[in-house]
Specification:
Layout (H helix, E strand, L loop, with lengths): L1 E5 L2 E4 L4 E8 L7 E7 L6 E7 L5 E3 L7 E6 L4 E6 L8 E8 L14 E2 L3 E6 L1
Parallel strand pairs: 2-11
Antiparallel strand pairs: 1-3, 3-8, 4-5, 4-9, 5-6, 7-8, 9-10, 9-11
Length: 124
């Protein structure tokens, strides 16, 4: 499975961006698709994901109410709408996927496929 992420950029605090991640290269679509981010000097952290089978969404507490994840299963694409962005949201955002429906902790090692990363910079 190949994951192609796009949509990053530079935005002022309070602004919005939408990230996209398209999956290709396999007959079936991963059940769990989502996003992690990594700021300089920090560990990669979970942002949000969504399961295809039961359409459940999961968010890190720091983005709840500001970010919305969605999927277009016909296009094998997951989106992350980011509103009311803050400087602390600045990071490289990575798309991640796994074929099974994840239950419980969202740790990087539980995802099998990763996109190339897209930079999101929020200026104050």
């Amino acid at each position: 499975v190949q994951l192609q992420a796009s949509g990053g950029g530079l935005v002022q605090a309070g602004g919005s961006l939408r990230l996209s991640c398209a999956a290709s290269g396999h007959t079936f679509s991963p059940d769990t698709m989502g996003w992690f981010r990594q700021a300089p000097g920090k560990e990669r952290e979970f942002v949000a994901d969504m399961t295809r089978s039961d359409k459940r969404t999961y968010y890190h507490d720091s983005v709840k109410g500001r970010f919305t994840i969605s999927r277009d299963n016909a296009k094998n694409t997951v989106y992350l709408q980011m509103n009311r962005l803050k400087p602390e949201d600045t990071a490289v955002y990575y798309c991640a996927a796994v074929f099974r429906r994840l239950v419980g902790i969202r740790a990087p090692e539980r995802y099998d496929y990763w996109g190339q990363g897209t930079q999101v910079t929020v200026s104050s």
